[in-house]
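Extended Data, record TerB family tellurite resistance protein
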Amino acid sequence: MFRNLLNRLFTEDTEPRPLAADDAEVAVAALLVRVARADDHYNAVEKRRIDQVLARLHGLGLADAAERRSVAEMIEAEAPDTVRFTRLIKDRVSLDDRMAIIGAMWEISLADNHRAANEETAIRLVSGLLGVTDRDSALQRRRVAGGR
């Protein structure tokens, strides 16, 4: 399954097409995993938070969300550099959804109640690559941090 998704995500297309809903969900989950792994401390708290975020965003049960995360972990490990990965998502996911992705990334980053510079750097990089302004990213961070 994940090999087919990788091929669809990373095959150059002259006409960008929207990702299928399941593919987009797994691609977003892979970005969440990438941020959680950015500080080299990918732990159970972050995995649980990713599951919760995926369940909330996509109306999944926790078991289904954990399965998506598991697939996303494999995709993230195989995915090329963040620049190419996010360019394809930017071309195929709406701006509102990309802003929600940044909010989810901040939620994962703050899940362990520790602000890690590597995770923040990764979010800032992804924000810019997804076409989300620094201001909008900061607003998402404040929104997430305020809900804690």
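Summary. The chain has eight helices and no strands.
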